[in-house]
Amino acid sequence: xxxxxxxxxxxxxxxxxxxxxxxxxxxxxxxxxxxxxxxxxxxxxxxxxxxxxxxxxxxxxxxxxxxxxxxxxxxxxxxxxxxxxxxxxxxxxxxxxxxxxxxxxxxxxxxxxxxxxxxxxxxxxxxxxxxxxxxxxxxxxxxxxxxxxxxxxxxxxxxxxxxxxxxxxxxxxxxxxxxxxxxxxxxxxxxxxxxxxxxxxxxxxxxxxxxxxxxxxxxxxxxxxxxxxxxxxxxxxxxxxxxxxxxxxxxxxxxxxxxxxxxxxxxxxxxxxxxxxxxxxxxxxxxxxxxxxxxxxxxxxxxxxxxxxxxxxxxxxxxxxxxxxxxxxxxxxxxxxxxxxxxxxxxxxxxxxxxxxxxxxxxxxxxxxxxxxxxxxxxxxxxxxxxxxxxxxxxxxxxxxxxxxxxxxxxxxxxxxxxxxxxxxxxxxxxxxxxxxxxxxxxxxxxxxxxxxxxxxxxxxxxxxxxxxxxxxxxxxxxxxxxxxxxxxxxxxxxxxxxxxxxxxxxxxxxxxxxxxxxxxxxxxxxxxxxxxxxxxxxxxxxxxxxxxxxxxxxxxxxxxxxxxxxxxxxxxxxxxxx
Length: 579
Ligand code: NAD
Hints:
- Its EC number is 4.2.1.49.
- It comes from Leucobacter ruminantium.
- GO terms for molecular function: urocanate hydratase activity.
- Its cofactor is NAD(+).
- Keywords: Lyase, NAD.
- This protein has about 575 residues and is an alpha/beta fold.
- It folds into three domains: about 5-125, no CATH class; about 145-350, Rossmann fold; about 370-570, Urocanase superfamily (Urocanase fold), CATH 3.40.1770.10.
- About 45% of the residues lie in helices and about 15% in strands.
- It has 22 helices and 17 strands.
- It has helices spanning about 5-10, 30-45, 65-75, 115-125, 145-160, 165-170, 185-195, 205-215, 225-235, 250-260, 285-295, 295-320, 330-340, 345-350, 355-365, 380-390, 395-410, 425-440, 480-490, 520-545, 550-555, 575-579; strands spanning about 50-55, 55-60, 80-85, 90-95, 100-105, 175-180, 195-200, 220, 240-245, 265, 325, 370-375, 415-420, 445-450, 460, 495-500, 510-515.
- The strands form three sheets. Strands 3, 4, 5, 12, 13, 14, 15, 16 and 17 form a nine-stranded mixed sheet that branches.
- The longest helix is centred in the C-terminal third of the chain and has 25 residues, at about 520-545.
- The chain is globular and about 65 Å long.
- Bound molecules: nicotinamide-adenine-dinucleotide (NAD).
- The site of nicotinamide-adenine-dinucleotide has 33 residues, from helix 5, strand 7 and helix 10.
- Nicotinamide-adenine-dinucleotide binds near residues 178 and 329.
């Protein structure tokens, strides 16, 4: 066994991704994927359990498989493909140099067998995992991905409801939310980038103290009135503040609702998608909850759903008085309806999902959470690409603004990386330019491009990414599957298809992609093909579903005008029949 996999096998130690210019694998494509595998563990929440984020999202099935994956990547040739099945290394197959190096399918299960009980049973037996969106596809870059997404979302909300995103429009406004986990902790930080204040509720003192120490919140209190007083004192003084409140979200939200407080924005980012592991019911401290969810999982699930229903009721009350309320991608409403019964659905779903309400017009243009990772580990490489990206798209000044904010405010986590919402044509233009900088030696090592699975073509989740699609295709998984097929034909370096586990069982299907700019001329072609096919399919999907932004983008060659796709029209969407 090599030194690398021995390090991984110990598991107890903090894992650090490979850096520098020396290869351990036989080529940069495999080395890049190896570094990304290590990186998701370096920045992940519980690397000793291979858990990266979102409560149970894992990088590999178990430690034996983690070592097998590393061993395989170390000797993988460019005309070979490593096949992963639900986080286990099944085999290496001879393919072609232009084929993906890694193909991975995680927990894809036929509908009738896709329920959460069967998932937990198989997960306990070590037969399956929840791959998260980016955990098992080794594309997670730490909090920055969700920071960028939350920033974009709040920006759209500010423009829609508060007269614009300029700081003066947000200076005396505040957001009430909950959850300071891997994703949720991004909320106050993204809000602060726009000048918006916040109260964030968290049940686990360790999580809250960690965010306080990292500067993500300014103060931490355990009394809801004290939290509100601190907030209003700061707002009164014209200062921005981010207050952490130790407690249960359901109780805190109810308390504020009873007091008649009307936050400008109200949402939640506990891991409510998983009522067994992700949401603490009212009445338990963090330790008690963590112990009980193993001992009495059914009880915890039942009580968690009941508490979620209370929190949702409080959110609805605030929304009725004027708060902008939305669900932030964690299935909160699904759990509430499960507790309250189907007859509650009409009321509960007055809280819109964040995609349908705010981000869909961007996805329709193929604009979504793109990212790049400097495999050298050198922050100078990151600076060069940041400056390039900030200068390449003057027609969209929000890109340069985000990069400036991100450089200033986002702490380094793992390999230097940048999340940036780029669209169809923009992604490939940047990637080609970076490939040239790798070739010329201006960048010290190759750069990996990827994106979140919650992207224009990559995701079907009828309560998150694809809620309320105009053509009723909310639950249709053809698109992420087509996406994965297209990405494979393009020779992307890693192509993954994931389906939900635990709380997302039966709810989602996604496709993920990673591709390495290694500076070779032939790579430029693969980069262009893979990135344009991916975002292009997203545009086509939305054109087909009836979104004008997509139809415009498709006819104009995407955001940059140089990424042609041809939408063949609406003949099969039924639109003509309705005309
Ligand atoms: P996590 O498990 O790391 O964190 C959840 C946090 O919520 C924990 O700190 C937990 O202690 C806290 N919590 C649980 N119950 C609570 C309660 N009743 N009151 C107060 N705090 C409570 O999960 P995460 O990675 O932060 O993800 C959170 C959710 O966001 C997940 O459902 C995830 O799937 C979803 N998500 C959404 C997006 C998006 O695009 N909007 C992106 C990624 C993840």
